[in-house]
Amino acid sequence: MDLTVTNGSGEPVDPVLERFHLLVNAPALFNALTTALELDLFTALSGRPASFDELLGTTGLPPHSLRVLLHAVCSTGLLVRRDGRYENSGVAEELLTGDGPDSWRDILIGWREVYYPAFARLTEALEAGTNTALSAFPGHEATLYRRLAHRPELEAVFHRAMTAFTLRSVDALVDSGQFLTTRRLLDVGGGDGATSARLVARHPALVSTVFDIPTVSRLARRTTAPDLGDRVTVHPGDLFTDSFPEGHDTVLFSHVLEIFSGEQIVTLLAKAYDVLPSGGRVLVYGYNVSDDETEGWYSARLSLYLNALASGQGMAYPACDYERWLRQAGYGQVRTLKGLPYEHGLHIGVKP
Ligand SMILES: C[S@@+](CC[C@H](N)C(=O)[O-])C[C@H]1O[C@@H](n2cnc3c(N)ncnc32)[C@H](O)[C@@H]1O
User: Fold this and answer.
1) Rounded to the nearest whole angstrom, what is the distance from the C-alpha of residue 122 to the centroid of ligand 1?
2) GO BP, one example (predicted)?
């Protein structure tokens, strides 16, 4: 399917204009995509093109509803209609047919349920300079992470989405060479332990302690830790009010520091410094906006979400900010592995 937008004479138009047309229709098309995922449409079509009537049976939708949905998904190019039968595009076949812990289904449902309702209040939040969209969640805590404890089912949806996206982006960290000499890792803000689980699976000499808030530690105990014996343990606590456990040679902050302000980041890096031995390393993994702060769709989405909803501050900071904060906290041999998949970077510092 040719997705190029053309003018009346069939000539290609400005790609920014093409992007504009996609952008203004994107919220509706995003929801059509998540609906198709919930109805297992892409899985049903995996390697097996089907007719409209066959899809009626698969989805259980009324005929007119299915007609409207198929049109929407075909318009994105993710489904293709050929000789009256529907089939997955190559991208749909590769990304949308699985239902494992790294599925895009879990990612997009989490974004729809937790992130995207908040974006309708973006103007208000940016004008206020804080996460006013958090008022849609019960409780008085200042961050989404803490307030989700009042809604355990949504907290589970949120962490499933976060884990799925992390599993899609974590291999660059796991295979970075930084864990070849690590023996005892402290995974600060380690969520449900999915990153630690993958790290210990790939590095047999490694054990990890996952530090997170108590409700998330309970989730980690239920979902991840049981399969890993004593190689991943959980340590409930608050990043700012509790001290970090000692006895680790490497501290990892994966997708955590971007939640906070520069000042708080230096505080957290210094807390890690205090519990590391001389020669111990700190690793900061996450999204980086480009140095000139003009590129990165994933980074932009994250930064807006953090400010409207999650913490009211933070962003996908550029690599140069993290390097400066690492030096400020006392680390030496500071460097960055740039250009990792999904706009990620890995920042490394060593305690002298
Ligand atoms: C974006 S998630 C990252 C999870 C995991 N490290 C990953 O890469 O997928 C941020 C994590 O920080 C945790 N967190 C946020 N504020 C915290 C706090 N004050 N104390 C402890 N953990 C906190 C959240 O519960 C959440 O699991």
Assistant:
1) 23
2) methylation
